[in-house]
TrEMBL record:
Residue ranges of domain Response regulatory in the record: 5-119
Species the sequence originates in: Rheinheimera maricola
Name under which the protein is recorded: Sigma-54 dependent transcriptional regulator
All residue ranges annotated as the Sigma-54 factor interaction domain in the record: 142-370
PANTHER family membership: PROPIONATE CATABOLISM OPERON REGULATORY PROTEIN, TRANSCRIPTIONAL REGULATORY PROTEIN
Length: 454
């Protein structure tokens, strides 16, 4: 399959031919056009994912004319090809919505990087938009494009309208509560309460009165009737989180409620009837607990209904960029400031194992976002909170960070990142500067300041 479709609009035949062969060599489908009219004609039959646009085009050779046409192409990323004299125009193009610009003569390696980044950002934006447009609010909150997530979304949509009991199992932080809420929101009970009970967090001797409520005088301190969580969930959904941690005596009582649909408040004589849907979740292996006598087999079969199994984030890594984007947007909305990850920070997030799954990813992003400055999260921010991010070969930097010697720590980090970028770009300074989010001039100054032999 092709990596993407690119339309190259440039009046120089030799450059068109050369760039076309570079891009085809990298697996892109490429069409070319020499002016705006032929570009429009090409687009009617070729749905380009990205456009490379020279600003000086025939017949006018007037960059302003080309800039005026930019809006026609803006549904896809446009990269401006510019000569040095056109730098201001390129900046104007960016203000008008172009994705980036690249100077002529074009460096093929740099072009490849810019195109790759533009296309992956574009794909993320499109996927996020599609998810947002999903008319089923509950499922839209479940971010992810991996096969397990797609399958989960389909199952949720099928199961939600029924009243079948659901058991959601899987590792901690993989979204079991998000899934349960989606099931509730898409059900006929969606407008009724969703009551969540963390079975392990309520002390065993309080769980009964919390769930069933109590009547005045039932025990010391019960100075008035109080409805329990079961009653509060009447008509809606009761979500029993970490059900594996429910004490055995309470399991017996819950079983009776599930069998009969009725219960008594603690100290009460009046039988109460409830109508609710039960969704349970656990990260424990319930059949194992049943075998060990820690969980009642009859209750297990009652709550099991349909079992939905979540997948660890390390087994669906393709969801990480979209989750990061989602949490970044959430953060930006809350803080009212724009924020992005630079490329090294993004790779760090992509490469980690995330044993705490989505919860750990979200918390980590939020904490580094809190210390980031200037609207960009970089490795310098990450290593302040995660000194282990600095690899073993740079242990001295970790020590500095621990000693809170910020200045030298930042300098050493800069040196390391510059060396890494130079290595990655095989000595190409323009590309290294781009990877580091610096201008070429800015990079040269730093190389000079640190007297680096790169
Ligand atoms: N697919 C997802 N899309 C968006 N947010 C998610 C997703 N999965 C998890 N989250 C977020 O991650 C955090 C943890 O999710 P959740 O509480 O649902 O996990 P859990 O599996 O129930 O964890 P635990 O077993 O520890 O109770 C929440 O902030 C939730 O919003």
């Amino acid at each position: 399959m092709a990596n993407g479709r690119i339309l190259l609009i440039d009046d120089e035949p030799a450059f068109r031919q050369l760039a076309q062969s570079w891009l085809q060599g990298s697996g892109y489908l490429v069409q070319t056009a020499a002016d705006l009219d032929s570009a429009r004609a090409a687009l009617s039959g070729f749905d380009a994912d990205l456009i490379l646009l020279d600003l000086s085009l025939p017949p006018e050779f007037d960059p302003q004319h080309t800039l005026a046409a930019l809006a026609e192409f803006n549904s896809r990323p446009v990269i401006i090809l510019t000569g040095h004299a056109e730098r201001q125009l390129a900046l104007d193009a960016i203000a008008l919505g172009a994705w980036d610009f690249i100077a002529k003569p074009v460096d093929p390696d740099l072009l490849a990087v810019v195109i790759k980044r533009a296309l992956s950002k574009h794909q993320l934006d499109t996927e996020l938009k599609q998810l947002k447009q999903h008319n089923t609010a509950g499922v839209a909150r479940l971010i992810g494009v991996s096969a397990p997530m797609e399958a989960m979304r389909t199952l949720i949509q099928r199961i939600a309208p029924t009243d079948v009991r659901v058991l959601v199992t899987g590792p901690s932080g993989t979204g079991k509560e998000v899934i349960s809420k989606a099931l509730h929101e898409l059900s006929r009970r969606g407008a009724q309460p969703f009551v969540s009970v963390h079975c392990g967090a309520i002390p065993a001797d309080l769980l009964e009165s919390e769930l069933f409520g109590y009547v005045k005088g039932a025990f010391t301190g019960a100075d008035k009737d109080r409805p329990g969580l079961l009653k509060l969930a009447d008509g809606g959904t009761l979500f029993l989180d970490e059900i594996g941690e429910m004490p055995l005596p309470m399991q017996v009582k819950l079983l009776r409620v599930l069998q009969e649909g009725t219960f008594f408040a603690v100290g009460g004589r009046e039988q109460q009837k409830i109508d609710l849907r039960l969704i349970s979740a656990t990260n424990a292996n319930l059949p194992d607990l049943v075998n060990k006598g820690l969980f009642r087999a009859d209750l297990y079969y009652r709550i099991k209904g349909i079992t939905l199994e979540t997948t660890a984030l390390s087994e669906r890594r393709q969801d990480i960029p979209l989750l990061l984007q989602f949490f970044l947007e959430q953060h930006m909305r809350l803080q009212g400031q724009s924020l992005r990850l630079d490329s090294t920070a993004l790779s760090w997030f992509l490469q980690r194992d995330w044993p705490g799954n989505v919860r750990e990813l979200k918390n980590t992003l939020e904490s580094v976002a809190a210390v980031a400055q200037g609207g960009v999260i970089s490795m310098a921010d990450i290593s302040l909170l995660h000194p282990e991010a600095v690899n073993a070969g740079h242990a001295e930097l970790a020590t500095d960070v621990n000693n809170l010697q910020l200045e030298p720590a930042v300098q050493q980090l800069e040196i390391r990142l510059i060396k890494q970028a130079m290595l990655q770009s095989k000595g190409n300074k323009s590309l290294a500067a781009r990877l580091l989010g610096l201008s070429r001039q800015g990079l040269l100054k730093k190389i000079d300041r640190y007297q680096l032999s790169v």
